[in-house]
Each structure stands twice: as structure tokens, then as C-alpha cells.
């Protein structure tokens, strides 16, 4: 299985009175995310499902991937919210029994996505992966009960190399 | 300092009677490497120096990077040959006293380059990074006596995402 960890685009700054979960993409964030989505389409990247954090900035990022026909399906996953746990998500993933050739996009937040990638690839998180807003990490998960420390990294890119 | 580990392009197969060090890029390997170099140029990637393994297939790859004006300088480094040691290379690097903003390309072979990247980022090699021929790994080395286990990964791409 291939998973693509995609960080949401540039969003409104944190501000007193605006709950974190409703911060939305700025116009610049939308434009850049659209450019990334268009380039992914041209590169032939496709997803069977886009899973997204329920927070507005991630949801909007996932909708842009959908608009650009990278996936027919968007599903919200509370595991991808900033307080989500990769272990809970892996339990959920196992229960789905997706076929091995499935390609999933996971749209969410930092530091979570970088931590998840490092835990999947090296079994622990050392904050060594730089994942920019609208950036992507691509991992291959082996067919195994637990992919922790067993995944391979085939892609990590900031958006500037996708424009 | 940023270092870009670049694997040589597609080369002639191993064959009895052809020493490994003279195997050269195939026409397809040259074409693909040229496409990658052109895209790197358009993306604004530049190197102060291209260091290359002395083996013909790496040397040719480095020359293509030079033809596409990614760097004005190519230097052979025996440390980048298949039996080279990252520790010896780091000693060499320290002696150069390059300024912190230097951008170096290292053209060489697998499994070496993937191993070097993992040793720089996580302190050990677990063969978890997939580096295709003409693929690239981008690392930021901190200003420190030994960057082992201290580097950050900002890019890893197969050539298919650079065409």
C-alpha cells in the first residue's frame, strides 16, 4: 500500500477569538495548493481515498485534491486531527482491509504527519523530516500486521518543487 | 550547508569483460538525466560544486549537471566510489571549510548514497530510503563538528516526479 501524507496549505494565522479548528486557507494558500494538485494530476498521482483531518484548513486542502480529480472520495478521520494517534489510525486501517495496491492520501497537520512518517519508517520520531505546508511524503507500507518501522520512503517534497 | 545526493542515471548492465568502473550511461539514461537536469535548472536548484564518484556512469551524470549549468565546477572524489566511506568524506569536508550557505551535489551510487543519507539523518542505516537512478536526496547539514544523526531531510524524489 502507498500512503501520501499531505500537509494542509497556508492558513490564517492563529488569532484570539478564532478557534483553531475553523482557521481556513488564505487565498495564497488556496492558489498554491491548487498548483500542487494540478502538478500531481499531471504526474499521474491518484488516490483511492483522501482521508482528512476534520479541521477546516485540512478539509479545504482535501477538497482541492478532489476538485483536481486526484480522488473520487474524501473521508474525515478524527485520527488525523492534531491530537490524533497513529496507533489508533493503524487499528482503523487494519479494519478496512484495503487491497495491497491501495493508494491513500492523508491530509493533516505538523508535527503529526512528520512524526507518523518517522514512526512508520524508523520506528521512532526524531523530527528530522521537513514537511512544508502543501508538501508531501510518500511511503510504501509492507503487507504486515504492523508497519511500524517497516515502511519505505519514496518521496518527500516541498511544494516549491511541484510548481 | 545543503547537500544533494544524486544517483547516476541508467547505465549499461554488468557484463563479463566490462570492468564495473567503465560502464557508461545508456542513451535512455542520458536522456532521462538530461530531463532531470533541465527541470532542476527550471526549479532554481544550483550547486557550488558537483563532487562525483570517479566511475564513468557517475562522471557522465555529473557532466550532464554541468552542461545544464547547475554548477561551474566538477571535482572527482574517491570517497564517492562504491567502496567509499562517509566518515572519510566528512573528514575531507571539514578540511574544505566551506561557508555555511554552500550547496554541494554528490553524484554516486547505491546503496552508498541512501546509507550516507540515513547515517546523516538518523545516525544509522536501515535501507529505508528508495533512491532511484537519477533520483535525488536533499539534506541540510547543521553547523557542527559532526553532522552524523543531525541532518534534516528536505527532499527525496525519484526522477519520474521531475519530468
Automatic annotation (TrEMBL), chains A, B:
It comes from the Bacteria. It holds the Pfam family His_Phos_1. One of its GO terms (cellular component) is cytoplasm. GO terms for molecular function: protein histidine phosphatase activity. SMART domains: PGAM. SUPFAM superfamilies: Phosphoglycerate mutase-like. InterPro entries: His_Pase_superF_clade-1, His_PPase_superfam, SixA. Gene3D superfamilies: Phosphoglycerate mutase-like (3.40.50.1240). NCBIfam families: sixA. This is Phosphohistidine phosphatase SixA. It comes from Chroogloeocystis siderophila 5.2 s.c.1.
Amino acid at each position: 500500500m502507498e500512503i501520501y501524507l499531505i500537509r494542509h496549505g497556508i492558513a490564517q494565522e492563529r488569532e484570539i477569538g478564532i478557534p483553531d479548528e475553523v482557521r481556513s486557507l488564505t487565498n495564497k494558500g488556496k492558489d498554491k495548493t491548487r498548483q500542487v494538485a494540478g502538478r500531481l494530476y499531471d504526474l499521474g498521482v491518484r488516490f483511492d481515498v483522501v482521508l482528512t483531518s476534520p479541521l477546516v484548513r485540512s478539509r479545504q486542502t482535501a477538497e482541492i485534491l478532489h476538485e483536481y480529480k486526484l480522488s473520487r472520495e474524501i473521508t474525515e478521520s478524527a485520527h488525523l486531527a492534531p491530537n490524533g494517534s497513529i496507533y489508533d489510525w493503524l487499528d482503523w486501517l487494519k479494519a478496512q482491509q484495503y487491497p495491497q495496491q491501495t493508494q491513500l492520501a492523508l491530509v493533516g497537520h505538523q508535527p503529526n504527519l512528520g512524526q507518523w512518517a518517522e514512526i512508520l519508517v524508523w520506528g521512532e520520531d526524531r523530527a528530522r523530516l521537513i514537511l512544508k505546508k502543501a508538501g508531501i511524503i510518500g511511503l510504501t507500507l509492507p503487507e504486515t500486521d504492523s508497519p511500524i518501522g517497516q515502511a519505505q520512503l519514496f518521496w518527500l517534497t516541498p511544494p516549491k518543487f511541484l510548481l
